[in-house]
Each structure stands twice: as C-alpha cells, then as structure tokens.
C-alpha cells in the first residue's frame, strides 16, 4: 500500500442524500474509519469549504480522508478513476470482473465492489447479491470494500468485514459492526 494509513474496515461516502447528517455520522464512526468526500453536486467554492469542514471533523476523530475528483486538496488518498498520485491511498470502484481487473492493473490499494444489494443510488439496477459479490471478491488480489445497500446488519449477513455506505451510516443508523477478520 502506498500510504502510511491502514485501509479502514468501515467507510462513509458523502453524497447529497446524506449531507445533512455527515457531521454527526463522522462523530459516530469508530475511530480509524474511512471517509470518502464526493459531493459532486456542489460548485467548487462551496465544495472546498464543505471538504475543509468535514475533513476537520474526520481527522479529529482519527478517520482516513479520501477525496474524489481532480482537486489537490489535503487528503490521505484519492477515489475513483485512475491513480493520480504516487503517494497516498487510491481507491477504485468496480461493478464486475473487468472493472475489478482494471483496478488491479491501476495499482489500487482497495476497491469498492458494488452494488451488493439494492441501493438508492441505482434504483431497480442489477445487484451482485451474496454469491456474486463473494465470487468476485475472492478473485481479487487487492482488498475489497462491499458497497451498495450496505449497513451494519447487511455487512454481518454478507460476512464481509470491509464495507462502506452512503445512507447506511447516517446518524440514525445502528452503530457499525467492527469485529471480524481483515482481508
């Protein structure tokens, strides 16, 4: 891994849908969790201020901060697309075997594999399901982070310790499950 930070087990991804709860959600995550700042819906000046505010909360709580987009703001890594920095974490996304292999070729430090379950991000979309997720995840030489309809209960059902959520980690969700083996 090209970072001083271990790859967290639990990841909160920002989105317009969960923006109102992010401060409280970051406070409630177990120390050492991960936070992916996306907020593609904001104009750049508003986005940089929102990033600074949420990054401060995340760092105060010991979380790893990863930035989506092409900005060169102070973060512990990047999310999506091709690796843009030689240092720091790089997290990729994959929805199938070819995308998973592309993440491996791009030297990603971890990959969000989705959607495992039905999700508000892709209503009516095809999901990997338990078997599809495990089949792909077990083929991966890099750590896999389950994404898509995830929350603490579904992470336990999936039997996968590393997972992320947009809506499943809001302040009104039950606390995340942190015990279990690592990849």
Give me some keywords for this one:
about 180 residues, alpha/beta, TIM Barrel, eight-stranded parallel sheet, 8 strands, about 15% strand, disordered C terminus
What is the first-to-last residue Cα distance? 13 Å
**Count the helices. How many?**
5
Mean pLDDT: 88
Q: Unreliable runs, pLDDT <50, ≥5 residues?
A: 177-183
What spatial order of strands do you see in the largest sheet? Answer: 7-6-5-4-3-2-1-8
Globular, elongated, flat, extended or rod-shaped: what is the shape?
Answer: globular
Number of strands: 8
Fourth CATH level, the homologous superfamily: Aldolase class I
Biggest pleated sheet: 8 strands, parallel
What is the fold named in CATH at topology level? TIM Barrel
Q: Can you identify the CATH class?
A: Alpha Beta
Helix content: 25-40%
From N to C, what is the helix and strand string?
A: EHEHEEEHEHEHE
Number of domains: 1
How would you explain this protein's 3D organization?
It is built from 5 helices and 8 strands, in the order βαβαβββαβαβαβ. By secondary structure, it is an alpha/beta fold. Strands 7-6-5-4-3-2-1-8 form an 8-stranded parallel β-sheet. The longest helix has 17 residues, at 44-60. It is globular. The two termini are 13 Å apart. Residues 177-183 have low confidence and may be disordered.
How is this fold's topology laid out?
Layout: E1 10-13, H1 22-28, E2 34-37, H2 44-60, E3 64-68, E4 77-79, E5 89-94, H3 97-105, E6 110-113, H4 129-139, E7 144-146, H5 152-158, E8 163-165
Parallel strand pairs: 1-2, 1-8, 2-3, 3-4, 4-5, 5-6, 6-7
């Amino acid at each position: 891994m090209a970072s001083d930070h271990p790859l967290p087990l639990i990841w909160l991804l920002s989105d317009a849908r969960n923006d109102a709860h992010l401060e409280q959600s970051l406070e409630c995550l177990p120390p050492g969790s991960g936070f992916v700042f996306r907020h593609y819906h904001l104009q750049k000046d508003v986005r940089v201020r929102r990033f600074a505010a949420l990054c401060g909360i995340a760092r105060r709580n010991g979380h790893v901060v990863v930035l989506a987009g092409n900005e060169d703001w102070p973060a512990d890594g990047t999310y999506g697309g091709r690796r843009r920095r030689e240092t720091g974490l790089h997290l990729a996304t994959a929805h199938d075997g070819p995308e998973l292999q592309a993440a491996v070729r791009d030297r990603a430090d971890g990959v969000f594999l989705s959607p495992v379950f039905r999700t508000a991000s892709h209503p009516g979309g095809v999901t990997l399901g338990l078997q599809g997720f495990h089949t792909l995840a077990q083929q991966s030489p890099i750590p896999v982070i389950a994404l898509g309809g995830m929350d603490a209960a579904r992470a336990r059902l999936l039997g996968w310790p590393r997972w992320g959520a947009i809506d499943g980690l809001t302040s009104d969700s039950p606390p995340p499950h942190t015990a279990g083996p690592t990849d």
